[in-house]
Amino acid sequence: MRNVMSLFLACTACGTAPQPESRRTVAAFEVPLHDAAERDAFLALLRHEAEASGFHLDAATPEELRILSEISPITLNATIWRGKADNEIVASAMDYRDNLGRIWISFAKGEDPERFARFRQHLMRSVARRWPGTLSLPIMPTGAIPLPADLIRTPSGYVVNPAERARYDLPSNRPAPSSAVR
Hints:
By secondary structure, this protein is α+β, with helices and mostly antiparallel strands. Helices cover 30% and strands 24% of the residues.
């Protein structure tokens, strides 16, 4: 049920309600996971790295995913949390009908930005080694990730389609901010 709520919160976060700075998305990546074995391996890696850093992972069960897919197809929905009582979202990973099999993992700034950044960098190095097709996603000035239809894939990651830059209040002559696997 917590994962269903995470999906709901992720969907409603697209609105204009102000968010605490600690919840701002600071990096996001697309990880190609084309089958259940790949998704299981990804979840195992997330769980291992989260626990090693003092965080924990909650992931939707197959039954929860089946129920969620009745509304919109989804193959993975997981959240990494800080605190035993799910005090703070560290990262969220999921796909939707527009990017099934290509999991988007996004990372929050956090109340302890250095700790969250160390975790993100360590995790993403491990992810990129295991799934070399991992690409960065641009983060808009608001902290949002553009819609899949508004992105163009490049060898180094996604960029906002120039025809859609105005939608995200991006100047036409400056590249959109993006994440990098370091």
